[in-house]
Design brief:
With about 375 residues, the chain is of the alpha/beta class. Helices cover about 50% and strands about 10% of the residues. Helix 3 runs parallel beside helix 4, helix 3 packs across helix 9 and helix 5 crosses helix 8. The protein is globular and about 60 Å long.
Length: about 375
Protein backbone atom coordinates (compact mmCIF):
# COMPACT_ATOMS: atom_id res chain seq x y z
CA UNK A 1 0.00 0.00 0.00
CA UNK A 2 1.33 3.42 -0.98
CA UNK A 3 1.98 5.70 2.00
CA UNK A 4 2.06 9.44 1.26
CA UNK A 5 1.77 11.03 4.70
CA UNK A 6 3.16 10.64 8.20
CA UNK A 7 -0.46 10.66 9.39
CA UNK A 8 -1.13 7.40 7.58
CA UNK A 9 -1.47 4.57 10.14
CA UNK A 10 0.82 2.44 7.95
CA UNK A 11 3.62 5.02 8.06
CA UNK A 12 6.99 3.73 9.28
CA UNK A 13 10.37 5.39 9.68
CA UNK A 14 13.73 3.73 10.31
CA UNK A 15 14.68 3.77 14.00
CA UNK A 16 18.24 4.83 13.13
CA UNK A 17 17.77 7.10 10.11
CA UNK A 18 15.15 9.28 8.39
CA UNK A 19 14.41 6.81 5.59
CA UNK A 20 10.75 5.83 5.56
CA UNK A 21 8.08 4.12 3.50
CA UNK A 22 7.13 7.41 1.86
CA UNK A 23 10.61 7.70 0.35
CA UNK A 24 10.61 4.04 -0.63
CA UNK A 25 7.45 1.90 -0.53
CA UNK A 26 9.61 -1.27 -0.72
CA UNK A 27 11.68 -0.43 2.37
CA UNK A 28 12.08 -3.23 4.96
CA UNK A 29 12.69 -3.13 8.70
CA UNK A 30 14.10 -5.68 11.14
CA UNK A 31 12.65 -6.40 14.57
CA UNK A 32 14.47 -3.34 15.96
CA UNK A 33 12.94 -1.04 13.35
CA UNK A 34 16.24 -0.68 11.47
CA UNK A 35 15.81 -0.43 7.71
CA UNK A 36 17.56 -2.37 4.95
CA UNK A 37 19.46 0.75 3.87
CA UNK A 38 21.50 0.69 7.07
CA UNK A 39 22.58 -2.89 6.41
CA UNK A 40 23.29 -2.06 2.79
CA UNK A 41 25.48 0.82 3.90
CA UNK A 42 27.38 -1.29 6.47
CA UNK A 43 28.07 -3.97 3.86
CA UNK A 44 29.41 -1.35 1.43
CA UNK A 45 31.47 0.23 4.21
CA UNK A 46 33.01 -3.10 5.15
CA UNK A 47 33.90 -3.93 1.55
CA UNK A 48 34.84 -0.49 0.21
CA UNK A 49 36.11 1.93 2.86
CA UNK A 50 39.70 1.78 4.09
CA UNK A 51 41.08 3.47 7.20
CA UNK A 52 44.35 3.93 9.05
CA UNK A 53 47.51 2.29 7.79
CA UNK A 54 45.61 0.24 5.23
CA UNK A 55 44.20 3.42 3.67
CA UNK A 56 47.62 5.11 3.63
CA UNK A 57 49.15 2.13 1.85
CA UNK A 58 46.32 2.03 -0.69
CA UNK A 59 46.64 5.74 -1.48
CA UNK A 60 50.41 5.37 -1.92
CA UNK A 61 49.81 2.42 -4.20
CA UNK A 62 47.28 4.36 -6.30
CA UNK A 63 49.51 7.43 -6.64
CA UNK A 64 52.51 5.30 -7.58
CA UNK A 65 50.46 3.40 -10.17
CA UNK A 66 49.07 6.56 -11.76
CA UNK A 67 52.49 8.19 -12.02
CA UNK A 68 54.07 5.03 -13.41
CA UNK A 69 51.34 4.47 -16.04
CA UNK A 70 51.27 8.18 -16.84
CA UNK A 71 54.97 8.33 -17.63
CA UNK A 72 55.56 9.79 -21.11
CA UNK A 73 51.93 10.94 -21.21
CA UNK A 74 50.55 14.40 -20.62
CA UNK A 75 48.16 13.36 -17.84
CA UNK A 76 48.16 10.76 -15.10
CA UNK A 77 44.40 10.74 -14.69
CA UNK A 78 41.08 12.49 -15.30
CA UNK A 79 38.73 13.99 -12.74
CA UNK A 80 35.18 14.91 -13.70
CA UNK A 81 34.50 18.27 -12.06
CA UNK A 82 31.11 19.82 -11.40
CA UNK A 83 32.14 22.43 -8.85
CA UNK A 84 30.53 20.33 -6.09
CA UNK A 85 32.11 19.17 -2.84
CA UNK A 86 33.29 15.71 -3.93
CA UNK A 87 35.08 16.62 -7.16
CA UNK A 88 36.55 19.78 -5.62
CA UNK A 89 38.10 17.91 -2.69
CA UNK A 90 39.29 15.13 -4.97
CA UNK A 91 41.07 17.72 -7.13
CA UNK A 92 42.72 19.28 -4.08
CA UNK A 93 44.01 15.89 -2.90
CA UNK A 94 45.28 15.06 -6.40
CA UNK A 95 47.27 18.29 -6.34
CA UNK A 96 48.73 17.37 -2.94
CA UNK A 97 49.79 13.98 -4.33
CA UNK A 98 51.55 15.65 -7.25
CA UNK A 99 49.34 14.12 -9.93
CA UNK A 100 48.96 15.62 -13.41
CA UNK A 101 45.22 15.91 -13.84
CA UNK A 102 42.95 16.72 -16.74
CA UNK A 103 39.75 18.14 -15.27
CA UNK A 104 36.72 17.36 -17.41
CA UNK A 105 33.49 19.31 -17.05
CA UNK A 106 30.26 18.25 -18.71
CA UNK A 107 28.29 21.35 -19.74
CA UNK A 108 24.66 20.44 -20.37
CA UNK A 109 23.45 24.02 -20.43
CA UNK A 110 22.30 24.14 -16.79
CA UNK A 111 25.41 25.39 -14.96
CA UNK A 112 24.85 27.91 -12.19
CA UNK A 113 27.17 30.91 -12.06
CA UNK A 114 28.53 29.62 -8.77
CA UNK A 115 29.42 26.28 -10.36
CA UNK A 116 31.40 28.04 -13.08
CA UNK A 117 33.30 30.07 -10.47
CA UNK A 118 34.07 27.03 -8.34
CA UNK A 119 35.42 25.16 -11.38
CA UNK A 120 37.56 28.15 -12.35
CA UNK A 121 39.03 28.14 -8.84
CA UNK A 122 39.81 24.43 -9.02
CA UNK A 123 41.78 24.58 -12.27
CA UNK A 124 43.53 27.88 -11.54
CA UNK A 125 44.58 27.14 -7.95
CA UNK A 126 45.48 23.52 -8.60
CA UNK A 127 47.22 24.29 -11.89
CA UNK A 128 45.25 21.70 -13.88
CA UNK A 129 44.05 21.77 -17.48
CA UNK A 130 40.31 21.91 -18.13
CA UNK A 131 38.42 20.08 -20.89
CA UNK A 132 34.80 21.21 -21.21
CA UNK A 133 32.49 18.84 -23.04
CA UNK A 134 29.62 20.96 -24.36
CA UNK A 135 26.49 18.99 -25.23
CA UNK A 136 24.36 19.80 -28.26
CA UNK A 137 21.65 21.75 -26.44
CA UNK A 138 18.71 21.22 -28.82
CA UNK A 139 19.25 17.48 -28.88
CA UNK A 140 19.80 17.29 -25.12
CA UNK A 141 16.68 19.36 -24.47
CA UNK A 142 14.68 17.06 -26.72
CA UNK A 143 15.69 14.04 -24.61
CA UNK A 144 14.87 15.86 -21.38
CA UNK A 145 11.45 16.80 -22.76
CA UNK A 146 10.90 13.17 -23.75
CA UNK A 147 11.46 12.18 -20.12
CA UNK A 148 8.94 14.81 -19.02
CA UNK A 149 6.39 13.45 -21.49
CA UNK A 150 7.07 9.91 -20.31
CA UNK A 151 6.31 10.88 -16.71
CA UNK A 152 9.28 8.92 -15.33
CA UNK A 153 11.15 9.85 -12.19
CA UNK A 154 14.84 9.83 -13.16
CA UNK A 155 15.10 12.81 -15.50
CA UNK A 156 18.70 13.24 -14.35
CA UNK A 157 19.57 10.00 -16.17
CA UNK A 158 19.78 12.07 -19.35
CA UNK A 159 22.79 13.88 -17.88
CA UNK A 160 24.33 10.96 -16.00
CA UNK A 161 24.39 8.58 -18.96
CA UNK A 162 25.96 11.28 -21.13
CA UNK A 163 28.63 11.99 -18.50
CA UNK A 164 29.66 8.33 -18.23
CA UNK A 165 29.97 7.92 -21.98
CA UNK A 166 31.71 11.25 -22.61
CA UNK A 167 34.33 10.45 -19.94
CA UNK A 168 34.97 7.10 -21.57
CA UNK A 169 35.47 8.70 -24.98
CA UNK A 170 37.71 11.46 -23.61
CA UNK A 171 39.91 8.83 -21.91
CA UNK A 172 40.36 7.16 -25.28
CA UNK A 173 40.97 10.46 -27.07
CA UNK A 174 43.54 11.70 -24.52
CA UNK A 175 45.14 8.28 -23.95
CA UNK A 176 44.41 8.37 -20.21
CA UNK A 177 43.79 5.07 -18.47
CA UNK A 178 42.48 6.24 -15.09
CA UNK A 179 39.63 8.31 -13.68
CA UNK A 180 39.57 9.45 -10.07
CA UNK A 181 35.92 8.94 -9.20
CA UNK A 182 34.25 11.39 -6.80
CA UNK A 183 31.44 9.01 -5.91
CA UNK A 184 31.88 7.64 -2.41
CA UNK A 185 30.28 5.44 0.21
CA UNK A 186 30.40 7.89 3.13
CA UNK A 187 27.96 10.36 1.57
CA UNK A 188 26.35 8.67 -1.46
CA UNK A 189 25.71 4.98 -0.84
CA UNK A 190 22.07 5.31 0.21
CA UNK A 191 19.74 5.70 -2.75
CA UNK A 192 16.47 3.82 -3.39
CA UNK A 193 16.52 1.90 -6.66
CA UNK A 194 12.95 3.06 -7.36
CA UNK A 195 14.29 6.62 -7.80
CA UNK A 196 16.80 5.78 -10.50
CA UNK A 197 17.24 4.20 -13.90
CA UNK A 198 20.56 4.83 -15.66
CA UNK A 199 19.96 2.29 -18.40
CA UNK A 200 20.84 3.77 -21.83
CA UNK A 201 18.42 1.38 -23.51
CA UNK A 202 15.62 2.83 -21.40
CA UNK A 203 16.67 6.31 -22.53
CA UNK A 204 16.56 5.17 -26.14
CA UNK A 205 13.10 3.64 -25.71
CA UNK A 206 11.71 6.79 -24.10
CA UNK A 207 13.22 9.04 -26.75
CA UNK A 208 11.96 6.84 -29.57
CA UNK A 209 8.44 7.25 -28.25
CA UNK A 210 8.48 10.95 -27.33
CA UNK A 211 11.53 12.58 -28.94
CA UNK A 212 11.51 14.66 -32.10
CA UNK A 213 15.21 15.09 -32.93
CA UNK A 214 17.44 12.15 -34.02
CA UNK A 215 20.14 11.10 -31.53
CA UNK A 216 23.20 12.05 -33.57
CA UNK A 217 25.43 14.00 -31.16
CA UNK A 218 24.39 12.64 -27.78
CA UNK A 219 27.45 10.89 -26.23
CA UNK A 220 25.72 7.51 -25.79
CA UNK A 221 25.47 5.71 -29.14
CA UNK A 222 22.93 3.15 -30.31
CA UNK A 223 22.66 0.66 -33.18
CA UNK A 224 19.41 -1.10 -34.06
CA UNK A 225 17.93 0.22 -30.84
CA UNK A 226 20.68 -1.23 -28.64
CA UNK A 227 23.27 0.65 -26.63
CA UNK A 228 26.83 0.51 -27.96
CA UNK A 229 29.41 0.40 -25.22
CA UNK A 230 32.23 2.91 -25.80
CA UNK A 231 35.47 1.37 -27.01
CA UNK A 232 37.62 3.36 -24.60
CA UNK A 233 39.01 1.53 -21.59
CA UNK A 234 39.88 3.02 -18.21
CA UNK A 235 40.00 2.10 -14.55
CA UNK A 236 37.83 4.08 -12.16
CA UNK A 237 39.41 4.64 -8.73
CA UNK A 238 37.16 5.64 -5.78
CA UNK A 239 39.89 7.57 -3.99
CA UNK A 240 37.51 9.27 -1.53
CA UNK A 241 36.79 5.85 -0.03
CA UNK A 242 40.39 5.75 1.15
CA UNK A 243 40.31 9.17 2.81
CA UNK A 244 38.82 10.38 6.08
CA UNK A 245 35.89 11.91 4.25
CA UNK A 246 33.87 14.05 6.64
CA UNK A 247 31.55 16.32 4.67
CA UNK A 248 31.48 19.22 7.14
CA UNK A 249 35.24 19.26 7.57
CA UNK A 250 35.84 18.92 3.82
CA UNK A 251 33.65 21.96 3.14
CA UNK A 252 35.83 24.02 5.48
CA UNK A 253 39.02 22.78 3.81
CA UNK A 254 38.02 23.48 0.21
CA UNK A 255 36.55 26.87 1.16
CA UNK A 256 39.85 27.83 2.75
CA UNK A 257 42.19 26.32 0.16
CA UNK A 258 40.27 26.84 -3.09
CA UNK A 259 37.75 29.58 -2.34
CA UNK A 260 34.89 27.11 -2.79
CA UNK A 261 31.35 28.42 -2.22
CA UNK A 262 28.48 26.28 -0.91
CA UNK A 263 25.34 25.76 -3.03
CA UNK A 264 23.05 24.94 -0.13
CA UNK A 265 22.17 21.42 -1.33
CA UNK A 266 23.72 18.25 -2.73
CA UNK A 267 24.28 18.59 -6.50
CA UNK A 268 22.68 22.06 -6.48
CA UNK A 269 25.55 23.31 -8.65
CA UNK A 270 23.14 22.68 -11.55
CA UNK A 271 20.07 24.90 -11.86
CA UNK A 272 18.06 22.03 -13.31
CA UNK A 273 19.17 19.61 -10.58
CA UNK A 274 18.18 22.15 -7.94
CA UNK A 275 14.74 22.56 -9.52
CA UNK A 276 14.34 18.82 -10.11
CA UNK A 277 15.32 17.77 -6.56
CA UNK A 278 13.77 20.74 -4.83
CA UNK A 279 10.46 20.98 -6.70
CA UNK A 280 9.71 18.26 -9.26
CA UNK A 281 10.61 15.29 -7.04
CA UNK A 282 8.60 16.37 -3.97
CA UNK A 283 5.64 17.82 -5.92
CA UNK A 284 5.14 15.14 -8.58
CA UNK A 285 6.76 12.04 -7.10
CA UNK A 286 6.44 12.79 -3.35
CA UNK A 287 10.17 12.19 -2.95
CA UNK A 288 12.36 14.25 -0.62
CA UNK A 289 15.82 13.23 -1.71
CA UNK A 290 17.31 14.76 1.44
CA UNK A 291 16.09 11.70 3.35
CA UNK A 292 18.57 9.48 1.53
CA UNK A 293 21.47 11.96 1.75
CA UNK A 294 20.91 12.69 5.45
CA UNK A 295 20.46 9.00 6.29
CA UNK A 296 23.76 8.22 4.60
CA UNK A 297 25.47 10.80 6.82
CA UNK A 298 23.82 9.21 9.86
CA UNK A 299 25.09 5.77 8.83
CA UNK A 300 28.63 7.12 8.37
CA UNK A 301 28.57 8.81 11.80
CA UNK A 302 28.62 12.38 10.50
CA UNK A 303 25.13 13.36 11.66
CA UNK A 304 22.63 12.39 14.36
CA UNK A 305 19.05 11.48 13.60
CA UNK A 306 17.90 14.50 15.61
CA UNK A 307 20.04 16.81 13.46
CA UNK A 308 18.67 15.19 10.31
CA UNK A 309 15.07 15.65 11.47
CA UNK A 310 15.74 19.34 12.11
CA UNK A 311 17.21 19.64 8.62
CA UNK A 312 14.08 18.08 7.12
CA UNK A 313 11.92 20.68 8.85
CA UNK A 314 13.59 23.36 6.72
CA UNK A 315 12.10 24.21 3.31
CA UNK A 316 13.27 21.79 0.65
CA UNK A 317 14.03 24.72 -1.66
CA UNK A 318 16.41 27.63 -0.93
CA UNK A 319 14.42 30.61 0.29
CA UNK A 320 13.42 33.01 -2.49
CA UNK A 321 14.96 30.83 -5.19
CA UNK A 322 12.02 28.70 -6.33
CA UNK A 323 10.19 31.25 -8.49
CA UNK A 324 13.47 32.46 -10.01
CA UNK A 325 14.45 28.93 -11.01
CA UNK A 326 10.96 27.97 -12.12
CA UNK A 327 10.74 30.93 -14.48
CA UNK A 328 14.18 30.15 -15.88
CA UNK A 329 13.64 26.39 -16.31
CA UNK A 330 10.22 26.69 -17.92
CA UNK A 331 11.45 29.30 -20.39
CA UNK A 332 14.57 27.30 -21.28
CA UNK A 333 12.57 24.11 -21.87
CA UNK A 334 9.69 25.90 -23.64
CA UNK A 335 6.99 25.10 -21.08
CA UNK A 336 4.08 27.40 -20.37
CA UNK A 337 3.00 27.56 -16.72
CA UNK A 338 -0.19 25.69 -17.60
CA UNK A 339 1.73 22.93 -19.41
CA UNK A 340 4.09 22.50 -16.48
CA UNK A 341 1.22 22.39 -13.95
CA UNK A 342 -0.44 19.75 -16.11
CA UNK A 343 2.80 17.73 -16.06
CA UNK A 344 3.03 17.92 -12.26
CA UNK A 345 -0.56 16.68 -11.89
CA UNK A 346 -0.42 13.99 -14.58
CA UNK A 347 0.08 10.30 -13.68
CA UNK A 348 3.66 9.08 -13.35
CA UNK A 349 5.01 5.93 -14.97
CA UNK A 350 7.80 3.53 -14.09
CA UNK A 351 10.85 3.43 -16.34
CA UNK A 352 10.19 -0.26 -16.93
CA UNK A 353 6.88 0.64 -18.57
CA UNK A 354 8.87 1.83 -21.60
CA UNK A 355 11.35 -1.05 -21.69
CA UNK A 356 14.88 -1.51 -20.39
CA UNK A 357 16.46 -4.31 -22.39
CA UNK A 358 18.37 -5.04 -19.21
CA UNK A 359 19.67 -8.27 -20.76
CA UNK A 360 21.78 -6.08 -23.02
CA UNK A 361 22.95 -3.54 -20.49
CA UNK A 362 22.88 -4.24 -16.76
CA UNK A 363 23.85 -1.09 -14.89
CA UNK A 364 25.46 -0.76 -11.52
CA UNK A 365 22.12 0.35 -10.21
CA UNK A 366 20.37 -2.81 -11.36
CA UNK A 367 23.08 -4.82 -9.65
CA UNK A 368 22.51 -2.75 -6.51
CA UNK A 369 18.82 -3.62 -6.68
CA UNK A 370 19.71 -7.33 -6.74
CA UNK A 371 22.08 -6.79 -3.81
CA UNK A 372 19.34 -5.22 -1.71
CA UNK A 373 17.11 -8.13 -2.67
CA UNK A 374 19.64 -10.53 -1.17
CA UNK A 375 19.90 -8.39 1.97
CA UNK A 376 16.11 -8.35 2.22
CA UNK A 377 15.79 -12.12 1.87
CA UNK A 378 18.54 -12.73 4.39
CA UNK A 379 17.32 -10.37 7.07
CA UNK A 380 13.59 -10.11 6.68
CA UNK A 381 12.37 -13.45 5.31
Amino acid sequence: MMVTSKNDPNYRQCSLSVMDNIADPTIYFDDKGICNYYYGYKEAEKNGILTGREAEMKISEVVRLLKEKGRNKKYDCIIGVSGGIDSTYLSLKAKEYGLRVLCVHFDNGWNSELAVKNIENIVSKCGFDLYTYVIDWEEFKDIQLAYFKAGVIDIEAVTDIAIFDSLDRICAEKNVGFILDGRNICTEQTLPSCWINKNPNNLYAIHQKFGKIPLNRYPAKFKDGKYLRPRGSYESIPLLNYLDYNKKRVKEIIARELGWKDYGGKHYESVFTRFYQGHILPEKFKVDKRKAHLSNLIFSGQLTKEEALLELEKPVYPEGQLEIDKTFVLKKLGFSKEEFDAYINAPSFSHEYYGNNSDTYQTTYVKARHFFGRIKRKLFS
